[in-house]
């Protein structure tokens, strides 16, 4: 085969791959380690050195895969698989050499995101007493509380509904990791800082 033909095939392959990548749905916004803050600030400072990955004692931080586009190799967490434990000394932030991860003043200031409950799939809102997310929260009774309310149309039983207090939620994802609901997504998910809540939860719930 002539060199020109090989070059043409290679170019065609690159074009097809590029077209397929462009047609693929964009990846969801990434859940960043504690102290990342706003996406633009983090992106400007993160040098993809991997220090935070090495520092995490629970191996919860990973490098984003190639299909993350421009965010490939940046640190992120998959809360459903292994959430952040909100270490009190924040070794991930302490190990960051560029300030991309700023040391939070307290655990609730980790500012990774905010947990959002899907009342249509949450067991507690269906009349069952679950409380798994509430018990899993490291900031129990601060970031997640239980709202005891009468069950509509039922004069005997009550609903023990979890409520997320946005300003106190660190976005660690332990609630998401422990949630017993899984199809199509956990009944409580963490929307990363800077992400659009409606769009993010719709995609997580298979609605978009």
What does this 3D model show about the protein?
Helices cover 26% and strands 14% of the residues. By secondary structure, the protein is of the alpha+beta class. The strands form three sheets. The protein has a two-stranded antiparallel sheet with strand order 1-2. A two-stranded antiparallel sheet has the order 3-6. Strands 4-5 form a two-stranded antiparallel sheet. Strand 4 and strand 5 form a beta hairpin. It starts with a helix and ends with a helix.
Write the layout of secondary structure elements.
Elements (H helix, E strand, L loop, with lengths): L2 H21 L15 H7 L5 H5 L5 E3 L11 E3 L13 H4 L18 E5 L14 H5 L7 E7 L7 E7 L9 H5 L9 E5 L4 H8 L4
Antiparallel strand pairs: 1-2, 3-6, 4-5
Features:
two-stranded antiparallel ribbon; about 210 residues; single chain; two-stranded antiparallel sheet; alpha+beta; disordered N terminus; 7 helices
Short description:
With 208 residues, the chain is of the alpha+beta class. It has helices spanning 3-23, 39-45, 51-55, 91-94, 132-136, 174-178, 197-204, and strands at 61-63, 75-77, 113-117, 144-150, 158-164, 188-192. Strands 1-2 form a two-stranded antiparallel sheet. Strands 3-6 form a two-stranded antiparallel sheet. The protein has a two-stranded antiparallel ribbon with strand order 4-5.
């Amino acid at each position: 085969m002539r060199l020109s033909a090989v070059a043409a095939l290679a170019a065609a392959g690159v074009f097809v791959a590029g077209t397929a990548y462009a047609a693929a749905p964009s990846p969801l916004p990434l859940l960043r380690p504690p102290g990342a803050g706003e996406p633009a600030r983090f992106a400007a400072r993160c040098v993809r050195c991997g220090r935070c990955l090495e520092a995490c004692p629970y191996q919860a931080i990973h490098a984003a895969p190639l299909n993350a586009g421009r965010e490939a190799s940046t640190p992120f967490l998959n809360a459903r698989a292994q959430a952040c434990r909100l270490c009190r000394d924040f070794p991930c932030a302490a190990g960051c050499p560029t300030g991309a991860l700023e040391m939070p003043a307290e655990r609730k200031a980790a500012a990774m995101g905010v947990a959002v409950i899907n009342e249509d799939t949450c067991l507690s809102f269906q009349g069952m007493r679950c409380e798994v997310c509430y018990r899993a929260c490291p900031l129990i009774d601060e970031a997640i509380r239980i709202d005891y309310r009468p069950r509509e149309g039922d004069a005997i039983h009550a609903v023990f509904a979890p409520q997320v207090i946005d300003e106190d939620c660190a976005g660690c994802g332990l609630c998401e990791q422990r949630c017993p609901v899984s199809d199509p997504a956990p009944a409580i998910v963490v929307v990363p800082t800077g992400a659009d809540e409606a769009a993010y939860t719709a995609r997580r719930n298979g609605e978009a």
